[in-house]
Design goal:
A nine-stranded mixed beta sheet has the order 4-3-5-2-1-6-10-11-9, with helices on both faces. The longest helix is centred in the middle third of the chain and has 25 residues. 34% of the residues lie in helices and 18% in strands. It is built from eight helices and eleven strands. Helix 1 links the parallel strand 1 and strand 2. By secondary structure, it is α/β, with parallel strands linked by helices. It has a single domain, classed as Acetylglutamate kinase-like (Carbamate kinase, 3-Layer(aba) Sandwich).
Length: 257
C-alpha cells in the first residue's frame, strides 16, 4: 500500500506548480575548457534555481554524470556493466556536491540525499525525509541514481518525482528548445514538436528520456516539460505557467498546461 504524500503548501500565487523535479545532465556542469565541473556553470545553474525557488515552488533535482563517467560507455569498452554503472552513480555524487556548494554560496538551503550510503558527505535517501526537506523549502538534490545498476538517472528522476509527489519533471537540455521528430544534430531539417504523448515518444524513439523512465511517467500521468536551460529565464517561465519547450504528457492532459 502506498503511503500518502503530505500536501505541500505556501505556494506563490504566481506559480502553477507546488513541487517539481528538475533533471540536469552532467554535461550541463561541464566547461568549455574540458573542465568536468565548471564553477561558472555551477554559478549560473545555481542562480536559475534560486530565481525559481523565489516563486515559492518546492524543488528537487536529479543530476547525471555524463561529464565524468558513463557506465554504458565503460561497458562498451569491455568493463563489466554493473561496475561501470556503480562508478557512474558515485560520479553523480560529485556533481550533487558541486551543485550544493554553488547554491549554498548564494543563500539557498540544500540537502544531498544519496541512494548509496555515504554518511560523511550526504544523507541517505529516505522518502519521508526528502519530503520533509521540501516542505521546509530546502532544495533537495538526489544523488547516486536509483542505487541500482542498469538504471539511468532518467529513470531515477522519474522514480523520485513520483515518490515525492512532484507535479512535473522539468527536463533541462543544453542545446535545443525541446523535442524534435529526429536528431537535430544529424538532421538540420528536424521538426520541433511543441507537444507529444509519452506513448508517441516511446514508439517514435524520440530523445526525451529512456524508455523505462517514459513508461513510469506514462503509467502515472506525470508530465515532462523539456526546455532549453541556456535561457536563464526558462525555468521561471515554466513554473509561472508560460509555454516554452515541449510538453510530454498523457492524452487526457492535452488541454491542460
Amino acid at each position: 500500500m502506498n503511503e500518502e504524500v503530505p500536501a505541500s503548501g505556501g505556494m506563490n500565487p504566481e506559480a502553477v506548480f507546488n513541487r517539481v523535479l528538475i533533471k540536469l545532465s552532467g554535461q550541463a556542469l561541464q566547461g568549455e575548457e574540458h573542465l568536468s565541473i565548471d564553477p561558472d556553470k555551477i554559478k549560473a545553474i545555481s542562480s536559475q534555481i534560486k530565481n525559481a525557488s523565489n516563486l515559492g515552488v518546492e524543488i528537487a533535482i536529479v543530476v547525471g554524470a555524463g561529464n565524468i563517467f558513463r557506465g554504458v560507455a565503460g561497458s562498451a569498452r569491455g568493463m563489466d556493466r554493473a561496475t561501470g554503472d556503480y562508478m557512474g552513480m558515485i560520479a553523480t555524487v560529485f556533481n550533487a556536491l558541486a551543485l550544493q556548494d554553488g547554491m549554498e554560496k548564494i543563500g539557498l538551503k540544500t540537502r544531498v540525499l544519496s541512494a548509496i550510503h555515504m554518511q560523511e558527505v550526504a544523507e541517505p535517501y529516505i522518502r519521508r525525509r526528502a519530503i520533509r526537506h521540501l516542505e521546509k523549502k530546502r532544495i533537495v538534490i538526489f544523488a547516486a541514481g536509483t542505487g541500482n545498476p542498469f538504471f539511468t538517472t532518467d529513470t531515477a528522476a522519474a522514480l523520485r518525482a513520483l515518490e515525492i509527489g512532484a507535479e512535473a519533471i522539468l527536463m533541462a537540455k543544453r542545446k535545443y528548445d525541446g523535442v524534435y521528430d529526429s536528431d537535430p544534430e544529424t538532421n538540420p531539417n528536424a521538426v520541433f514538436l511543441p507537444r507529444v504523448t509519452h506513448l508517441e515518444a516511446i514508439e517514435r524513439g524520440l530523445r526525451v528520456m529512456d524508455t523505462t523512465a517514459l513508461s513510469l511517467c506514462m503509467d502515472n500521468n506525470l508530465p515532462i516539460h523539456v526546455f532549453n536551460m541556456t535561457d536563464p529565464a526558462n525555468i521561471q517561465k515554466l513554473l509561472s505557467g508560460e509555454r516554452t519547450g515541449t510538453i510530454v504528457s498523457s492524452p487526457a492532459e492535452s488541454d491542460s498546461f
